[in-house]
Amino acid sequence: MSDSGNTFLGILAGTAIGATLGILFAPDKGVNTRGRIAHEAQIAKDNLAREASNLQNTIASTVSDKKETLDTKIESLVSDASYKADDVITSLEKKLRELKARNKKLQKS
């Protein structure tokens, strides 16, 4: 996870803990306090779910970009290898013609 994601989660957790402690020490009825805690917990849960969704989208986008880059590199590598193979074949055919010509000369002598 990135540093900014960790920082956000730390701030979110600190805010939730601070809000919970503030509500617990506030002079109010227990029913109201529990309701506020439940409400704050729901807000924290929603924020966490939203942040997790954003992180998932970011990761999916990054993976997709990396896959496209990898596909492009593989295609380029295969293309380069094909050209090099053609060059090697051409070179070997030339050497073979030279050897055949030399062999013919040696057989005539």
Chain-averaged pLDDT: 82
Which spans of ≥5 residues are poorly predicted at pLDDT below 50? none
How many angstroms separate the termini? Answer: 78 Å
SSE topology string: HH
How is this structure best described in words?
This protein has about 110 residues and is mostly helical. The chain is about 95% helix and about 0% strand. It has two helices and no strands.
Sequence-ordered SSE layout with sheet pairings:
Layout: H1 3-25, H2 30-108
Helix pairs in contact: 1-2
Question: What is the structure about, briefly put?
Answer:
Helix 1 (3-25) packs antiparallel against helix 2.
Key attributes of the depicted protein:
mainly alpha; 109 residues
